[in-house]
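ENTRY TYPE: protein
CONTENTS: sequence, structure tokens:
***
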Amino acid sequence: MRQIPLAVCYAAVLVGVYLVELHSYLLFHTVVELFSVCVACAIFMIVWNSRHFIQNNYMLFLGIAYLFVGGFDLLHTLAYPGMGVFPGHGTNLPAQLWIVTRYVESLSLLLAPLFLKRHLNANIVLAVYGVISGLLLLSIFYWPVFPACFREQTGLTRFREVSEFVIIVFLLLSLVSLLQKKSWFDAMVLRWVTWSIALTIASEFMFTMYARSPGRTSMIAHFLKLISFYLMYKALIETGMRQPHTLLYRRLKEHESELQKAHDDLEMRVRERTAELSRTVGNLKEEVEERIRVEQAYLESERKYRALVEQTPAVTYIAALDEKGSTLYVSPQAKSIMGFSPDDYRNDPDLWTRQLHPDDRERVLAELTETRRNNTAFSSEYRFVTRDKSVIWLRDEATIVKDENGHPRYIQGVIYDITEAKQAREEILANQEQLRVLTSQLLSVEDQERRRIATTLHDSIGQILAFLKIELGTLQRLELPEQVTQAIARAREQVEEAVRQTRTLTFEISPPELYTLGLESALEELAQRFTQERQIECRVHSGGAFEPLNNQLKMLLYRAVRELLTNAAKHAHAQAIDVELGPVDGCIQITVKDDGAGFDMSRLHARSSDKGTGYGLLSIREQLTHLGGRMDIRSAPGEGTQVILTIPFEHPRTPDRSREQ
């Protein structure tokens, strides 16, 4: 249902443009061409300012190309008969500029897929386009060597007619190449670009029938061009700005998925290894107990025991309960794992104690003393210095073996090498830390880009729309037929709506109050806008002054509050929402409380799978955790929801890169 009002608006715009054409074809031609110029320039500005972070070179190449497409379209508009900018050139000049523009556009669309897997130097591409454009303009204005496209006596030339078909072929080839590499594109972006190229082909096809019906075919062709440029705007500007994570974070998510898969595989191998060794310990314990109970079969039991432990990938030992811990038995694996043979341990009772790593010796001996005193199990991880002076990590699992009367007799245990597992865990922790740092950097970069895009949107498109609004007001004051005046009034209303939507989009991308007035003022503005748009009472309360926050923390907290307000309205159906913020123990704390339906806390994780409330809450919690903060949720069915966000004022994981610029 939401699409119906939007479709009505689009239809109204097209009808308005059609009425302008009925009144004045020159005005219609100027409006359509200027819209194309504005879109082309906007595409270039957005892509150029984002060139350091865009990984899709297809879009970067097209963004640069559309700057020159827009420039040639502007010259074509100014050269059109009746504009009076280039007197004495007649109809041939705009026809030549039209063909040049379409050649540049079609060849750019054809070449763009070649850069998906190749490095693209944006400065070189810009320079090449500048040189080529300069040569083309010189061939038209200074050296009149560019082929004629229109003659006053005979109409379109043969070169112009053939060129239209050549351009159509270039566009068809670019469309086929694009569809062959569709896996490199977001589905929505691919759809809009495909339709834009298809409508451009249709527009050029209409010009092949120009000789039969010049006025009608030219009007239809310009309508198709208008729609095609709008679709390219949808693909490269609107979709790219509203969903920046699909363009900036796509490769990062793939690498994160690969890292998580490797982590899961390693954890599974460690668990399997630990389970295997634990089962071995259990088997050894049963074997030793059986040996004690069956004294008559001592020799047979001893052979079984030795056969078992010597095949186990671990060191099995038996030690006395005295203070010296004299070694009674050590399996042969001690030689390969710890560097010392069983005879070394039997001949030197202090060998094991002496080879313990100095940093671990006191702790391990204290744990062993506690085991002997209380007859409890012994479990410890420690470092051990081998014969060749290398340091390894060992895990020691032992238990007190008792006789039939329950009296302790000796310590029996298993030692296995966990050096590789320790190193693997350290690598995983290091990778996780790098991922957290990278996430923090990406959040900072995203904040900078949002501010830059918002500024560009305000200073470029906003100014263009304001100028267009003024020009339409000037036309409205002229003495024109009533139908034309009404059409201009409707067009001006649409421009005013576009100005409003541009300002709203600028605020959504990067609210200026957040950086000029601070977090508290930005939240008050958000609450006011939320109250007006949702008809839900939203209040902001300040708990006192707090230390200035860096831009990254301000943006994170602002987005978190906005997400919580949206959840309260959309899922909890709240009627009133209170937002409290203030300093608490060196941190800033924000509490968002609503009177909505609430939810069962035990179902929070399950709801994350359907991209509902759970997904948003878990996303906020993950970002706060990366920056040293936390999120506490309190809710119950029918009792509303309270979410508390706490984060330090400054944290080593939150570098404010916006201050470094």
